[in-house]
Design brief:
The protein contains 8 helices and 41 strands. The protein is mainly beta. Strands 29, 32, 33, 34, 35, 36 and 39 form a 7-stranded mixed β-sheet that branches. Strand 16 and strand 17 form a beta hairpin. The N terminus is likely disordered.
Length: 795
C-alpha cells in the first residue's frame, strides 16, 4: 500500500484501501506456523521485497503484528528494522520460535520475538517504531505511516476485498515473483510452502549468514560506483544522500563496540591523490559479521556524519546490505605517515567559513592529506607518544619526531600560525590500548584505517598496534624555598569537593606537600562547595578544605590556613550546584594574612593609598564582581599577605573556559575563538585593578596567577599585561618548557604566573606531575614562583 492519496474514495467500502499500490517496499511473504506441529521451519517470519529500482532505507521502519480477531484490548507488537532493502532484493525478519520443526531460517536481517498466529493475523510495514493504535482496516490504511498491510486468515485489518487465505502450520501467504500490489490481499497473496529468503539471497537450505547489515541481493557483480567516486575530491561526497549499489571493497577493519561498522577499501585505486579509496560502513547497533580480508559488495545510502556542529564530517555508507564474495584476501598496502608524507602547512583557509567544499590539496595541507586517506589503511613506525592514554584507551603520537619537541617528550603548541601537523590519535580495534605517558614510544609498526574522531581529529584505528616502550617519565619535584624566599604556587585541583574519594585528596595533597615542596601560599582553582554537584544552595567549602589541608598535613606538609569568598549560588559557572571558587591556602608559620572584613560575593575590593603604601579595602576580596566580564564565571580573589614585614598582594584567577571555541581540526578555518571575548574583558578588569595598585604604590609587589584558560601568545595575555604592569613568567622559561597542560597531543600553557615590575628577583618553575601522565590527580600541572622579597625593588 502506498502513501495516502489526495482524493478520498468515499463510495468504497470502509475496509478498502484509499491509496495507490506500493511500487517500492512491500510485504512479500508472511508465515506464522514456525515451530508448530507439522512445521518444517522452526521460526515465524515476515519477508519484505523491493519492487523499486533504488535502495530502500529501512533504518526508520518497523514491522508490526495485530491478532486477526483484534479486540479492544489487543495491541500491535513491534519489531524494529535496520539496514536497507536492495533494489529487487529481499529482507528477512525472524519472529517467534516454536518447539517443533527441524530447519532454521537463513540468518534474519532483523529479529523479533512475536508469536504470530499460523492461521490469522495482520502484518503492517510502518514508518517509525511507535506502535499503531488502529483496529479497523479503514483506520489503518488511512494512517500515513503505514506503507503496506497484509491481513491473512480471518483478519479484520487487511487490504481490499478480503484477507489472504490458506495460511497454516505448513503454509505461508506470499506474493507472486512480480511483487504485484493491487492493494487487495486476497488477490495479491496466495498460500504455499514457505520460502524465506534473506538479503544475501540465502534460503534455509543454502546456509550462510549476513554481512553486518544484510546482503546485497545475492549477485556478485560489482555496481558502477566505486569508493573513490563516493569520496570525491572534497570533504563532502558527491553521492551524499544517494543510494549506491554493490560497491566493491576489501574489509580492512571491524569495529564491534560503540558505533559499530567496518571499513572497506578498493584495491583498484584511481590516479587521483585527492580521492580516498576507503570508506566506513556504519551498521549502528548491529555487530558486523564480516571479517578483515573479506571481499564484499556493499549496498546502502551515502551519508556525511558530523560528530559535532563544528567538526569535519565522516563519509559513510549507512543502512548497509552486504554480500561476501570471498574471504582471506590480501589487504591493500597502507600509506605511510611520516615527516616525508605529511605536509608542514596545517590547513587551507576559508576566512572562517567551511572548508568542506574546497578541493583537497593533500600535497599542501596536513588536514587535506589526512582527509584524502579517510577510511584507508595507514601506518607509522616508532612514533613518540605526545598525549597520554585517556579514559577511552586512546592516545596521541607524533609521526614527526622533530616537530616542536618539548624537554620531556611532548609536542609544543607555540602559536596559532603553526599547529603541529604530525599529531595523530591512535586507538586499538582489537585490544585495550596500552597505558602510555608522554615521551613513551610505540615501537615497531602501527597500522589500521584512518578515521575522524568525535573529540580529536584524525584517528588511526589500529588493527596492528606497535609495542609500548616506556621512557620512564617521572613526576617532577621542585626545590624547597629558602628562608628569605616567599613561595607562591597555583594549582587547579579539578572540581574538588568533600564528597570526593579520599584517594583524590591524598594525591592532590602529595602534589602540594612533596612535588611543590609546601609553598607558603597556594592559590587553588576549582574548589567546590561541600556537597559538590548537589544543587541545594550549599555555599561553604569548609568541609572540603578541612579534608584537603588534613591530607596535606598527613603527606608531610604544614598545617595550612585558608581564605575565600563564597560565591552566589550558581552564579560562577562550572558544574551546576558546585559553586566553584578560588581559595588561598597559606602557612601561618611563614606568612600572615591581612584580614580586612567586608568582602563578599558582590562587593568589590579596591586599593587605598596610604603613607605606608597600598592596601586593600577588603581582604580577601573580589575584583569588580558585578561586571559583565564575570557573568557565569569565576571572580578573581584578592588577598593581602605580609612576608618578612613586606606586603605582598596575590590575585587568584580562573578565567572562563575555551568551551564553545571551534576546534583546530574542524571544518571552519581559521577556527573562531569566541570565548576569547569574555577572557579579554576579564583580563582588562584585572589589568585595571593592577594599575590601580601600582598607582597607589609603584613598588607594590603583586603576584597574579591561576588558570587563565589561554595561551602565552594569546590576546588574553596581551590585554592582561598591557601597559607593562605585569610580566608573564612562562616566557622566562626556555621554549621547550613552556607548557602546563596537554590537549589533543599539544603541550600548551593555560596556567600562568605574572608579577609586577617590583618583583625583580625570583625563581619560577612549572612542576610537571599530571598533564603528561595517563594516571592524573588533575589535568593541570601546578607551578610555583619563589620570590626573594628582600632583594626586590622598593624594599
Amino acid at each position: 500500500m502506498g502513501a495516502v492519496g489526495a482524493l478520498a474514495l468515499t463510495a468504497l467500502p470502509a475496509w478498502t484501501a484509499v491509496a495507490a499500490p506500493s511500487a517500492t517496499a512491500v510485504i512479500s511473504e508472511v508465515y506464522g506456523g514456525g515451530g508448530n506441529s507439522g512445521a518444517t521451519l522452526t521460526r515465524d517470519f515476515v519477508e519484505l521485497a523491493n519492487a523499486g529500482s533504488e535502495v530502500f532505507d529501512l533504518s526508520a521502519y518497523s514491522v508490526q503484528y495485530l491478532p486477526g480477531t483484534a479486540s479492544a484490548s489487543s495491541q500491535w507488537q513491534v519489531t524494529a528494522l535496520g539496514g536497507s532493502l536492495a533494489a529487487g532484493g529481499h529482507y528477512l525478519v525472524g519472529e517467534g520460535t516454536g518447539s517443533g520443526g527441524t530447519t532454521a531460517l537463513p540468518t534474519p536481517d532483523a529479529a523479533g520475538s512475536i508469536a504470530m498466529s499460523a492461521t490469522t493475523g495482520t502484518i503492517a510495514l510502518v514508518s517509525g517504531t511507535t506502535a499503531l493504535t488502529c483496529k479497523t482496516a479503514a483506520d489503518c490504511t488511512a494512517d500515513s505511516r503505514v506503507l503496506d498491510v497484509v491481513g491473512y486468515g480471518t483478519a479484520v485489518v487487511r487490504e481490499g476485498s478480503g484477507p489472504a487465505t490458506g495460511a497454516s502450520n505448513t503454509a505461508s501467504v506470499a506474493r507472486a515473483d512480480s511483487l504485484a500490489d493491487t492493494d487487495d490481499n486476497a488477490t495479491d497473496l496466495t498460500a504455499g510452502t514457505p520460502t524465506p529468503v534473506n538479503s544475501a539471497g540465502q534460503t534455509p537450505d543454502s546456509g550462510g549468514g549476513e554481512g553486518g547489515g544484510g546482503g546485497g541481493g545475492g549477485t556478485t557483480d560489482p555496481g558502477t560506483v566505486r569508493v573513490h567516486d563516493i569520496q570525491g575530491t572534497t570533504r563532502l561526497s558527491p553521492y551524499a544522500g544517494k543510494a549506491v549499489t554493490r560497491v566493491p571493497g576489501i574489509v580492512t577493519g571491524v569495529r564491534t563496540s560503540g558505533s559499530k561498522g567496518y571499513w572497506i577499501q578498493d584495491p583498484e585505486a584511481d590516479s587521483d591523490a585527492r580521492t580516498s579509496e576507503g570508506v566506513f560502513v556504519y551498521t549502528g547497533s548491529t555487530t558486523p559479521t564480516v571479517a578483515v580480508g573479506d571481499s564484499v559488495l556493499v549496498t546502502g545510502r551515502v551519508t556525511e556524519y558530523h560528530p559535532s556542529s563544528t567538526s569535519q564530517s565522516v563519509t559513510e555508507i549507512t543502512g548497509p546490505a552486504a554480500t561476501v564474495v570471498s574471504a582471506g584476501n590480501a589487504l591493500p598496502e597502507p600509506v605511510k605517515l611520516d615527516e616525508t608524507t605529511v605536509p608542514d602547512a596545517y590547513t587551507p583557509e576559508a576566512d572562517g567559513g567551511s572548508i568542506e567544499a574546497l578541493a583537497l590539496e593533500p600535497g599542501s595541507y596536513a588536514l587535506d592529506f589526512y582527509e584524502s586517506l579517510e577510511g584507508m589503511r595507514t601506518t607509522f613506525t616508532d612514533a613518540r607518544v605526545v598525549g597520554a592514554t585517556d579514559a577511552y584507551d586512546e592516545l596521541w603520537v607524533t609521526v614527526k619526531p622533530d616537530e616542536h619537541p618539548t624537554k620531556r617528550g611532548g609536542t609544543l603548541y607555540s602559536s596559532y600560525a603553526e599547529p603541529n601537523t604530525g599529531r595523530v590519535k591512535v586507538a586499538s580495534l582489537d585490544t585495550t590500548g596500552p597505558v602510555a605517558n608522554v615521551g613513551d614510544e610505540l615501537s615497531g609498526t602501527t597500522t589500521g584505517p584512518l578515521d575522524y574522531s568525535t573529540y580529536g581529529g584524525y584517528i588511526l584505528q589500529a588493527t596492528q598496534l606497535g609495542t609500548l616502550s616506556s621512557e620512564g617519565l617521572k613526576q617532577e619535584v621542585t626545590r624547597r624555598q629558602k628562608g628569605d624566599e616567599l613561595a607562591v604556587a597555583t594549582y587547579n585541583v579539578e572540581n574538588l569537593d568533600a564528597l570526593d574519594d579520599q584517594e583524590k585528596f591524598d594525591r592532590l595533597a602529595q602534589g602540594v606537600a612533596v612535588n611543590l615542596n609546601s609553598p607558603d601560599i597556594v592559590a587553588l582553582e576549582e574548589i567546590q562547595d561541600d556537597n559538590g554537584a548537589t544543587n541545594d544552595g550549599t555555599l561553604t567549602s569548609e568541609a572540603t578544605l578541612t579534608k584537603f589541608t588534613s591530607a596535606i598535613r598527613a603527606a608531610g606538609g604544614p598545617r595550612y590556613s585558608w581564605r575565600y569568598i563564597a560565591p552566589e549560588n550558581n552564579q560562577d559557572g562550572g558544574e551546576p550546584g558546585g559553586n566553584i571558587r578560588q581559595v588561598f591556602l597559606f602557612n601561618p608559620k611563614r606568612v600572615s594574612f591581612t584580614d580586612r572584613a567586608g568582602g563578599d560575593a558582590t562587593t568589590a575590593t579596591s586599593v587605598v593609598k596610604t603613607r605606608k603604601g597600598a592596601h586593600l579595602t577588603y581582604s580577601p576580596g573580589r575584583i569588580n564582581p558585578t561586571s559583565d566580564a564575570w557573568d557565569s564565571s569565576r571572580k578573581p580573589l584578592v588577598g593581602e599577605f605580609v612576608f618578612h614585614g613586606e606586603p605582598v598582594f596575590v590575585i587568584a584567577n580562573h578565567f572562563t573556559s575555551k568551551g564553545g571555541d571551534q576546534p583546530l581540526h574542524g571544518r571552519y578555518q581559521q577556527p573562531a575563538r569566541s570565548s576569547e571575548t569574555q577572557r579579554a574583558a576579564q583580563a582588562a578588569e584585572v589589568n585595571t585593578f593592577v594599575k590601580s595598585l601600582l598607582a597607589a604604590d609603584k613598588d607594590a609587589k603583586a603576584v597574579v596567577l591561576g588558570d587563565l584558560n589561554d595561551f602565552e601568545f594569546s590576546g588574553t595575555v596581551t590585554t592582561l599585561t598591557s601597559g607593562g604592569v605585569l610580566r608573564p613568567l612562562i616566557t622566562t622559561l626556555p621554549p621547550a618548557e613552556r607548557y602546563t597542560y596537554v590537549y589533543d597531543g599539544n603541550s600548551q600553557t593555560l596556567d600562568h604566573t605574572l608579577t609586577t615590575p617590583a618583583v625583580t628577583h625570583f625563581d619560577y618553575d612549572v612542576v610537571h606531575i599530571n598533564a603528561e601522565f595517563a594516571d592524573q590527580a588533575s589535568d593541570h600541572d601546578p607551578q610555583i614562583v619563589r620570590i626573594d622579597v628582600s632583594r626586590c625593588r622598593g624594599h
